[in-house]
Amino acid sequence: MATRGKRKQAAEAPAEKDRGRYHHGDLRQALVDAAVALIAEEGFGALTLREVARRAGVTHAAPYRHFADKEALLEAVAHEGFRAMAREMRERMAPMTGPLERLYAAGEAYVLFAVLHPPHFRVMFGPHFTRPMSSPPEPEGEQGAFTLLVSTIEAAQAAGLLREGESRPLTLTAWSLVHGLASLFVDRQLGESPQGVEAAEALARVQTRLLVEGLRPPARG
Amino acid sequence: MATRGKRKQAAEAPAEKDRGRYHHGDLRQALVDAAVALIAEEGFGALTLREVARRAGVTHAAPYRHFADKEALLEAVAHEGFRAMAREMRERMAPMTGPLERLYAAGEAYVLFAVLHPPHFRVMFGPHFTRPMSSPPEPEGEQGAFTLLVSTIEAAQAAGLLREGESRPLTLTAWSLVHGLASLFVDRQLGESPQGVEAAEALARVQTRLLVEGLRPPARG
DNA sequence: CATCAATGTTGACACCGACAACATGCGATG
DNA sequence: CATCGCATGTTGTCGGTGTCAACATTGATG
After folding, report:
1. Which of B27, B38, B186, B188 is the most buried (most CB within 10 A)?
2. What CA–CA distance (Å, rounded) separates A133 from A136?
3. Structure pTM?
4. Is A15's pLDDT higher than 60?
5. Touching check for B169 and chain A: CB below 8 Å?
6. Residues B176-203, mean pLDDT to the nearest whole number
7. Do A95 and A147 belong together in one domain?
8. Chain A: nearest CA to B1, how far in angstroms?
């Protein structure tokens, strides 16, 4: 420790100008980012609180000033994921006007989110939580992914484009399909199929259409 | 298998009689069983090679005589799961004669397997493997779950009960649906829905039917 | 400028995965 | 039946990890 009395920002800054400060500035977010990057690069088994702290440039106990334990950090990652997923669904649905087109967009966005952000998706739905995860904080006016799916399906029902009756079974079918497709992608169970993003998008497009054929009302259109 | 030799048959009382023996008899399977029980009781985070050894009544290094490392033990659990899943699918399909009924049975069995054996299902499809998992040893003449699904769908296509054309997209749709439903169940994402086995069975029944409505050929029947 | 609460550090403890060296006893061989 | 090799289980150890307590530093508040 060279210049003890000084700011030491200039002394041992390993990279950006932010480094080397004793108070990190936004260590909490830095830890979340480091955790995501670590999972993406080294896999889940390499996710270590100490390595996360190392990557954030702090010592091994610093994370405990922001998270009660390792699981709390994972919870923050999951919350970030749920918010991002809902956002990406809204964005992809926004240009669409037809109820069915909006449903397709929602399903495609769900699968694409998983393919584009495997670490988030795994943490969100993986078996890594002992205590039940708290629901993610939703900024007011923003719907969660599930709520969005329900309302989209009910809108399509109201337009006569999907089967009538309870929306719940239809919602579960749609959710199961995109969740299963996303899971199979992320867990690399689709070995022979191409793994690229564009391939996933094409697959999601085909599958959502194929699904809706079953959700259609009996009367043929 | 029966004429495997004398082995340990004399003192193989599984209860307490065999405690204190220096050679366990079938420690390998005992470790697999202990791992499954541990995951079921304490969750995934509690899965420790040392605790597994403790439950099997051996010391902390004994497992290394049967598994190269922790991941190898998990691989054994996964293999057991894949074999059991295929078996349960075959059993549920056996009484069915109609191609569609066989497809329904396959899907229901897939979901039920996950609900009845969450630890196996999680290990099979979870993010816990760094190296690619070897394919499970399939006893000769027995098809794996995926192969079974493909042939069932192709049979239904041949009978004119499903859309014509490539079987692969249809297979992926069916697989995604049941896998998604199973995953949502196992990961407790269906909070409001009842969690019992009979509820899962009813749900799987409805969902597979709902799916097939979409897989049906355009001509109405 | 003095103080304080928030934030980061140091040190410690129990536990874990993995390996090496050693001990035991099953079962093949004579 | 006696011997002995080797698979199997044990003991001891090492580096790494999650978590906590005590201490140090800093930015903000008066």
Report:
1. B186
2. 8
3. 0.88
4. no
5. yes
6. 89
7. yes
8. 33
Give the residue carrying structure tokens 């290990």: B123
Q: Is A97 on the interface with B (CB under 8 A)?
A: no
Closest CA to B188 of B38, B92, B37, B44: B44
Which chain B residues touch A125 with a CB distance below 8 Å? 183, 187, 189
**Domain with B115 in it:** 85-221
In a domain, B25, yes or no: yes
pLDDT of residue B7: 36
What does the pLDDT look like over B29-53, one tens digit per residue? 999 999 999 999 999 999 999 999 9
* B46, B5 contact by CB (below 8 A): no
Q: Return the CATH number at B45.
A: 1.10.10.60
Q: What is the mean pLDDT of residues B167-183?
A: 95
pLDDT attached to residue A54:
97
| Residue B118 near residue B85 (C-beta atoms within 8 A) | no
If asked whether residues A172 and A132 sit together in one domain, one would say yes
Query: What DSSP string runs through B57-125?
Result: TS-TTGGGGT-SSHHHHHHHHHHHHHHHHHHHHHHHHTT--SHHHHHHHHHHHHHHHHHH-HHHHHHHH
Q: Count other Cβ atoms within 10 Å, centred on residue B198.
A: 8
Number of domain units in chain B = 2
Q: What does the pLDDT look like over A21-43, one tens digit per residue?
A: 656 778 999 999 999 999 999 99
Residue whose token pair is 């009484």: B95
What pLDDT does residue A192 have?
Answer: 66
Any domain includes A8: no
CA torsion A182→A183→A189→A194, rounded to 10°?
Answer: 20
